Amino acid sequence: MKKRLIAFTTMAALTAFGVYAQDAEDPFADAVETRHGLMLQMASDLGTLGGMAKGEAAYDKTAATKAAANVAAIASVISMAQFPAGSENGKSADSYALADVWAKQDDFLAKVADLNNAAAAMQTAAATDADAIKASMAQLGGACSACHKAYRQPES
User: Which residues form the signal peptide (predicted)?
Assistant: First the structure.
C-alpha cells in the first residue's frame, strides 16, 4: 500500500511538473487555446447559418437563432484580454495572430466592433428567414475576413 502511495504521489508530481514546465515555456498557451476555442465555436455556428443561407440545410428558426446568438456572444467577448502582448505567431506556440494586432490595436478593435455589429444584424436576420440570413452573411463574413486578412497568419 505504501509503495502504491509513493508511486501515485511521484506520478502526480511529475505530471504537475510537466504541465508547469509547459506553461513556463509558453506563458500564452492558455490565451492562444482560448482564442482557438472561440474561433472554432464561431466557425461551427457560421457553418449552421451558412448552410441555411446556401440552401444546403432547411431554415430552422430555433437552430438559426441559437447559432446567431452564439456568434454574437463570442464576438462580444473578443478583446485584448484574449490577445496578451507576446502571444503572436512565431513567439507563442500555435498562435496565428500577427504582431500588427498590437501595432495597430485601434484598427484591430475597430474590426472587432464591426464583427459585433454584423453579429447583432445576424441575430435579427436569423429570426426572420433563410433569405435574411443570406443577406446578412455577407456583412458577417466580411467582418471576419477583414480581421483575418489583416491580423491572422494564414495556415500553411
Answer: 1-21
